[in-house]
Amino acid sequence: MAKRPWRIFRQIERAYTRFSYSKKLNRIPGAPVTKLRVQVMGEVNRPLRDWKYAGHLISLLNIQISDYSLEAVRINLLKYLENEVKNFLFIIRKYPHHVVREHPIVYGGMGVAADRISQGMRLSFGKPKYRAAQIYRGDIILSIYFDNENFISIVKNLLRIARNKLSGNYFEYVGENIDENEIVKKIS
């Protein structure tokens, strides 16, 4: 079956989680592995307050973002950062914990065997198919820290590329490395 378009899963829904005091039972069976491999890249050992400039991508909507698109943004931005900026710290702040379920409904196109695949609304909660990060208004999705003032225009362009790869509306901040809470208060 083909992959469904992400616009059907874009709205935030109740988190599909399983809680148990037993560690063995405290997981979702059949949940896919996340595609997001690395979250912190660049000069990892340097503290955040030591960087002179920062660039943040801040969400303006409540939205779900797939792990595929977060990984695509990570790969694309890291390629440019390693070639152009070189001295940086790149952090993806949101992790795709949410398991998205899909109910495979077959419509009239299958013909004879359609009744064996689709059972209507019986057990309609679906099977775990994808992972998503649930992002709320004012959440910082990714951050880029750097020292050289000449790279401000490059980082602005990279945040624009990231904004175009992700669904939803975002605010791009590039400037002095100040407290993130102050930046979020400015846009609210």
From TrEMBL:
Keyword Secreted tagged: no
Gene3D superfamilies associated with the record: Ribosomal protein L10e/L16 (3.90.1170.10)
Transmembrane segments: none
SUPFAM superfamilies: Ribosomal protein L16p/L10e (SSF54686)
GO CC, any one term: ribonucleoprotein complex
Recorded superkingdom: Archaea
The protein's name in its UniProt record: Uncharacterized protein
Gene Ontology MF annotations: structural constituent of ribosome
Family (UniProt): Belongs to the universal ribosomal protein uL16 family.
BP terms from Gene Ontology: translation
Keyword Ribonucleoprotein carried by entry: yes
Keyword vocabulary terms for this entry: Ribonucleoprotein, Ribosomal protein
Record-linked PANTHER family: 60S RIBOSOMAL PROTEIN L10
InterPro entries cross-referenced by the UniProt entry: Ribosomal_uL16, Ribosomal_uL16_dom, Ribosomal_uL16_euk_arch, Ribosomal_uL16_sf
Naturally occurring in which organism (per UniProt): Candidatus Nanoclepta minutus
